[in-house]
Each structure stands twice: as C-alpha cells, then as structure tokens.
Amino acid sequence: MNRFILITLLLIVTIHFNVIGQVLPPIQCDRPDQTECPFIVPKNHFQMETGFAFEQTDSKTQSLFHPSILSKFGVNDNFELRLITESETVNSDTLSISGLNPVKIGFKVKLTDGKGIVPRTSFIGHLSVPYFASENFTATYYAPTFRFTMQYELTEKMNLGINLGSEWDGESTEPEFIYTLTTGYSFTEKLGGYIELYGFAPQNSQSDHRFDCGLGCLLNPNILLDISGGVGLSDISPNYYLALGFSFRLKD
Hints:
The protein is mainly beta.
C-alpha cells in the first residue's frame, strides 16, 4: 500500500512538472555562480534554489552552509519577491558555532529585455533583518544589498553576465562594492557550464577577488542540479569553496 501511494505521488509530481514545462522556457536560476541572472520567475510560479557549500577560509577556519535557500515568487512578468535563508556552521581552533544567518527579504524587477548593445537588465534589492537570526549570528543594523544584473546573448550557446552593486554587512556603515563577470556556455540542451571572476571592494579596506567555475544539469525544464567550486585570488580571500545545488519551479 505504501509503495502504491509513493508511486502515485511520484507520477503526480512528474506529470505536474511536464505539463508546466511544455509552456514555459527552462528554469533560470541565480546559482550556482555568483552572478545573479536578469530573468524573472514566471507569474504565479514559485521557485526554490537550495545549495550546500563548504568553504575553507584559512588553515584554521572552515564554514559549512547547510543549506542556503533562495525562495522566489513571480508576481507578474516584471517583478518577483525573494527570501533568502541560510544556515551556517563555523569551525576553528578556538570555537564552533552554528545557526541561522540574518534573513534577507527582497525583490527583482525587470528593467529592459535587451536589444543590440543594451543588455537584458534587472535590478535586485534585499534587506537583511538583524533579529531574524540565531543568537550567535545576529547583526547590529539592518543591512541593504543591491545590484544591477545584466546579460548579453553572444551566440545561441554562449552568454556574458555582469553584476554591479553594493552591500553592507550589518556591523558598520562602510559599503562594500560588488562586481561579477561570468561566461556561460551550453554544451547540450540539458548541460551547461560557466567560468567567473568576481569580487568585493570595501570603501576603505583591501579588495577581495575570487575565481570560480561550475556545471548545471537540467533533469527537466523545472528541475536543475548544479556543482561548483572556486578559489581566492587575494591575500584576504578564502582559500577555496565547493558547492552542490538543487533548484525547482512549481506553479501556484
């Protein structure tokens, strides 16, 4: 009986994904790279992008993100609501702490569809709420983050993504400028990859530059698996990170 119920549920989910996949383009995600994409989640659709990552900060400190979740809901063709929740464990020689980082509430709005030298462009804004967090990870201030996300379609298989923006850490008034530059390539209809350069430039501190690459595989138009990894290029950068992700899209 239990097997019959499980098989029935799997068939219902499969049929649901296949039906909405027939009328929509494949799922577009903001992971696994650090470059947010300009695409909006379709109207009345819910999308969740989850990831697990291990970061070796230095020889004595590691961080595990388990998981990081970006939830999105398409309000209309030009606007989506966003919620970011992230559980983290930090281990070092002197401490081990675990909990929820401050929750981020935000939106994405489409600015242009892109034509010629004008890229497809959207604006993303988030606000980190310091008290929506575990005791060990609370911040002092509300912290805004914003970026312009742009994409050029270079060929049918290759695109160029650019992000420019700024963020605050919730502990100081010093802004940290953000840049990303990524090239994505579709090897097949279901398998794609990217290479990326990105970084953070505080107003009065040393810049942090990094490099990463990864692969994404479409199981169907509404489910994406990904794997990625990167290294630090600056003295203050983390040594490296590795990540796995799973993303899916549902109709409300």
